[in-house]
Amino acid sequence: MEHNFDIDDRLQVWPNALGFYIHVSKNSVAVWPSECYEKHDVIGKILYYRMRMITSPENVEFILKKGAKHFLLDDLQHRLLEPALGQGLILAEGDKWFSLRRQSSRFIRPTCLDQVADLCKNAAQNAAHQLLKENRPIDLVLAEAFLKIFGKAFFDATKEDTIGVSESVEQYIENAQRVAVSTFLGLPKFLSLSAKKQLSLAHSLDERFDSALELRDLKSVQPTKAARRDFVINLMTGYKTTSVAAFWTLICLAKAQSHFEPCRIAGEKHLNAPDENKDYLDGAIDEATRLFPPLPLIMRTPKSDILLPSGDIAKPKEKLIISPWIVHRHKLLWDDPDRFIPLRHLEGDMRAPFFIPFGMGARLCPGQKLGTFALKEFLANLLQLARPIADFDKIKPKGGFILRPDDNMKIKWQKVGKA
Ligand code: HEM
Question: Which residues line ligand 1 (CB under 6 A)?
Fold first, then answer.
C-alpha cells in the first residue's frame, strides 16, 4: 500500500469540551470527527462555541472569495498568532489590510521575483547539497534551508549575515511561544519579561533586514517602516510553510518509491531547460501539499447573520472552519482521497475551491509564487543527489498552526546517479 496515506486516528464523534481542548492542543487535525470527511458543512457545538466545518465548494468559494467582505478572521486566529506576528498583514482587516497587502505585494510581484530568481536558484542548489551533510532532525534542517534560500534571494546577504538572520528569527519565534503563554495567563505586558525581550528582538530583526534591504535595490519600492517589518514577519511564516511542504513531499516520495524516478527525471529536465508546463515533479509537490497542507486550518467568522449559498444562516461568533486538510481528503470531493496520485494534478483541473493549499480569494497567499518556485528548485536539485528513505508509519502529522511531523524526524538518504 505504498500509495496510501490514510491517517487512521479519526474520532468517531465530536469530543466534549475538555476532550476538544486536549485534542486540539495536541493535534489540530486529529480533533475533527469522521463525519467531517464524509458530509458537507458539518456543525459541532463545543461549550458555547458553534463550529461549522465548511467543505461544500459553493460555501468555501463564498466565504473566501465572493462574499469575503461579510467575514472577519476568527478571534482564535488572533489570539494564537498575534503574540508572534503582531498586527501586520496576516491579522489585519479592512483598510489596514488593504494598504499593507498592497505595499507588501510589491516585494513579491513578478518583476521582483524575476530579479531574485537566479539568487534563489543558486541558494536552493547550495541548500540541497548542504542538507545531505546534516544529521539533525529533518524539519529543522529544512526550515533553516528555506530561511537561507529566502534570505539570500531577497536580501542577498553574505553567508554570515544569513546565518545571523536565521538565528535571530529562531530566537524571535522561540520567545514568541513564551509571550503567548504569558498572554494566555493574562499577565499585563509590563510584567512580562518575554514581551520586553520580544520587542528588542523585533527591533534587532528590523535593523538586520533594513540594512540588508539597503544592499539590494529594493529602495525603489519605498515601503513604510510598518510594511518592512511586516514583510520580515511574512517571510518568517513563509519559510516555515515552504519547508514543511518540502518535508511532506519527501515523505510521500520516501513511501511511494515508484514515483521517485519520474520526479527525479522531471527535476533534471527542469534544471537543464525549465519550461512553463507542469511536470511530474509539480504533480508530486501538489499531491503532497493536498495530502499534507502546510496550513491545515483557515478560520473565519461572520460579521452579522449571513445567508450561505447552501441555504444555511451563519451567525456572528460562529467559527467557520475551512480546513485544507479536510477539504483535500473529503470523500465527496476526491476519488481515493488518501492515495498519493501525482498524475491527477496533470490530467485534471485541480483548483480552488477543491484544492486550496494557498487559500483563495483576496487573502490568497501572496507568497505562493515565491514558495512554489523555491520548493521546486530545491527538490529538483535534491532528487538528483539522493533518494529519501523514511518509515511513514512512524510519522504522525501534527497540526498546530502549521502541519508538522510529530517527532524529531530524520530522513535517510540513498545516493543516486552522479552524487
Ligand atoms: C508552500 C508554501 C506556503 C503555503 C502552503 C502557504 C499557505 C497560505 C495560506 C493557506 C494562506 C491563507 C490564510 C487565510 O486565508 O487566512 C496564506 C496566507 C499568507 N501567506 Fe502563505 N503559504 C506559503 C508560503 C508563503 C511564503 C513563501 C510567504 C512570504 C514570502 C507567505 C506569506 C503569506 C502571507 C503574508 C499571508 C497572509 C495574506 C493575507 O492575509 O492577505 N506564504 N498562506
Answer: 89-90, 101, 108, 234-235, 237-238, 241-242, 245, 294-295, 298, 357-359, 363, 365-367, 370-371
- Which pLDDT value is given to residue 419? 46
pLDDT at 97 over 50: yes
pLDDT tens-digit series, residues 279-326: 999 999 999 999 999 999 999 999 999 999 999 999 998 999 999 999
3-state secondary structure the chain: CCCECCCCCCCCCCCCHHHHHHHHHHCCCCCCCHHHHCCCCEEEEECCEEEEECCCHHHHHHHHHHCHHHEEECHHHHHHHHHHHCCCCCCCCHHHHHHHHHHHHCCCCHHHHHHHHHHHHHHHHHHHHHHCCCCCCHHHHHHHHHHHHHHHHHHCCCHHHHHHHHHHHHHHHHHHHHHHHHHHCCCCHHHCHHHHHHHHHHHHHHHHHHHHHHHCCCHHHCCCHHHHHHHHHHHHHHHHHHHHHHHHHHHHHHHCHHHHHHHHHHHHHHHHCCCCCCCHHHHHHHHHHHHCCCCCCEEEEECCCEECCCCCEECCCCEEEECHHHHCCCCCCCCCCCECCCCHHHHCCCCCCCCCCCCCHHHCCCCHHHHHHHHHHHHHHHHHHEEEECCHHHCCEEECCCEEECCCCCCEEEECCCC
Q: How far is the CA of 394 from the centre of ligand 1 (A)?
A: 29
Ligand 1, atom 20: nearest CA belongs to which residue? Answer: 365
Please give the class, per CATH, of domain 17-156+216-415.
Answer: mainly alpha
State the closest ligand 1 atom to the C-alpha of 101, by its place in the atom list counted from 1: 41
* pLDDT tens profile 31-61: 899 999 999 999 998 877 889 999 999 999 9
